Structure formats: C-alpha cells, structure tokens
Amino acid sequence: MTVFKYFLRTVLLLSIIEGSTKAGPQKSTCIFRDHQIICEKHLPSLEYPVNTTNLEIRNIDWLELNFQDLVEKFPFVQNVTVIHGRNVTKLVPPPAENNIQVLTLNNLRLKRIRKEFFINFTKLEELSLRFNHLKHLPKQIQLPTVKTILLSGNKWNCSLNLDWVLELNETIVRDLRNLTCHEEPYPGKSLIEIAKFIREIEDECPLKCSCSMPKVVIEPETEVLEPIISVDCSYKGFSVFPETLPSKTKTLYLQGNEISSISPLRTNPLYENILDIFLDYNKISSVEELEGSLWLTQFRVLSLRGNRLSQIPSYAIDNALRQNSNMPNAVRLRLGGNPWRCDCPFTPVFQEMLQKFSHQISDLMEIKCSYVEGDENSMVPIIGLSRSSLCRFPSEYSVQALDLINVILVFLIIGVLAKLAYDYYHFKRTGRVPWIVTKMP
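-> structure tokens emitted (441 positions)
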C-alpha cells in the first residue's frame, strides 16, 4: 500500500506540474522524481516542489540565465544542470545565501563568464562548463571549496593572454591536459603546453627585444610539442649578439645593429640551434669564423645584406652547403649590398659558387663589385662578369715607361748584333777592319 500511495502522489504531482505548464504561455514538460525536477525548455510556470535539491533544464532558448531568480524559487537546490542552449549571453550570479554544490552549464554556447559570477558560489564543489564557446576564463577565480572542474570542448583562443591557464590546478581541472587551442596560430595544440611555452618565452626574452612563437609543431621522433620561437632584436644598438635567448629559439633578427663579429654562431652553445638568422646592415667584414663550423651545415637562412664583406672563403661555404641537411629547398643565403672585391684571385671562384647555388642565393643580382672610380666592373653584378674582364693585365690597355724602355733595349740589341754581323762579313771580304777598330789604342 505504501508503494501504491507513493505512486499515486507522484502521478498527481506530475499532472499538476504538466497542467500548470500547459496553462501558461511558456509550454514545457517537467518530470519530478523525489527531490529532482527535469524540465524541457522552461521551468514550471505555476506550482513546483520548493524542496527540490536537484534541478535540470534542457534545450533552453534564454538570453539570460538568472541564478538569483532560480535560488529564490528553489532555495534548497544543490545540484543545478543546464544543458543545450543557443542564445545565453548573460549569467546572473546567485544570492550570497545559496546551497549550490554542483553546477553544470554544458552546450550553451557561452562565450564569456565574468569573474564576479563565481563570487557567491561559496559551497560549490563541482563545476562543468564543457562544450561551450568560451575563449578564455577570467584570472583569479575564487572557488575555495571546488574539487572538480571540467572545461573541455570550448573554443580557447591561444592568441590572447594565457596567464589564467597557468593558475589552473590539474588535480581540480580534471581534463586540463585535454584542453586545446581552437584557432590559429596553434589549432589543436595543448592549451597548458602553449601557456607554459609563452611564459618561458616572456621570462627568457632578451632586454630590448621582442619574442614570439609563430607556431608549434609535433616532433616526429618524440611526438612532443616543439615551439618555433622568433626573437626580434633589430635596430636596438647591439654591438654583440644577445647574451640570453629563449632555449627553443629558431629565428633571430639582428638587422640594423653595430655587430662586427659572428663568432657566437660557432662558439656559443646558445646559438647552435638557430636555424634562421638575419644580420643585415651591421658591420660584419668577415665570415671566416664560420669555416668548418657545425652551424653552417644545419642552418636554413643566413642573411648578410648591407654589411662590409669584400670576400668570403668560397670553397668552405661551398663545402658546407653541400653538407647542409636542409639543402636544397630550405636554405637561403643573402649577400647583396656588400662591397665585393672583384679581381682574378678571388672573384672567379666566388662567381662559380654563386652560379652553383643560384637557387639558394635569393638576391643574386644585388651581389655587385664594390665601387671603384674608373673601373668598368664597378657596381656590376658579379654573376654576369666574364673571366677576361676579371683576369686582365694593365699592359693590355696602356704602355708603361718600363715597357717602353724594354722595347728600346730590344731594338738596340738587335742593331748592335746587326752591325757586328755586317762588320764581320766586310772584314772577311775585304780584309779591312771596321773604322772604330783602327782608332782604338
């Protein structure tokens, strides 16, 4: 009989709730089980059990989700679940006196949540915000009693400040390792790892420079995320290479400084993994320090435009490029705008190297002979010079004083020999000695 009475009471309550919802302008279907109400689209508009502790609402189409009103209607509610919605743009926090311990707001397309929303959830133990459109969370959310948070399935924007991510406790945010960036520049990459990379970059970035992480890749051998870090120290007055760099730096911009030596690329372990370096418009006059270095066999971009280079060890560069693991597609060498020496000992070998690696040297036509007044090769692209224009001698174009003396001496010697031959012939024929001989003492 007890079971039968309980069944009749439940049916009666259901009919009252359903009847009340049909009577109002907002029609919905609600189910009551013990202290739980499950409603579709709307709460009951008339009578409902005020001692309800568990409340679930599905498929809502509300602009505002007001927990102030909800707690006033259900003062004993402890577990609130709102799932599947389309237009929720505002969340109103509950009053200070509330008993909510479990809050689930899933699949509501929520785009943002203010820090103030959480202030009065002083008894909250579990929070789920899964499968919304959240791009970030506010920093320093105060939820002292919370034990479990679920955040997966959101559209986290990793181009925004990610300091809030580093505040999350992995023992509380149970799916922290599953959270991923939604859009460029790191789609599908681990949110926590990206946040850590960015924090490390900020901490290690050289003074006066700017550091960024254009992308993150997965290392094929280890399947570990590898950051691609770029450091820009251009036009900052550096006379030497920066003393610190983020450990995963791959690209370094040092254009427009006062640097004269590139020896750190060979001697400083900090630079051994730099793949792309831009040293345009500095004071570099030699690259001989790189000869035989490991760096030359693994770099991708070396840009030395507008420096003071007049010659380089062509054979050494040739050998290094042939051994480079990034050849041929990734390697780029830029040498234009330097005062290149154009003579027979250096230029033919240099020119041969330029021709051999023309696909890697992107500014080939800007590699020109230095300006020399009156020299026909002055400011001419080296790639187009003929060997005869390089390996020529001054005698081909003008007669010098020493050359003139040599010619005169030749003619004098020929004349003396010719006179000697004539005198000998005349003596044999006539028996007379030359006149000059008769005058000799």
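The first helix runs from residue 2 to 23.
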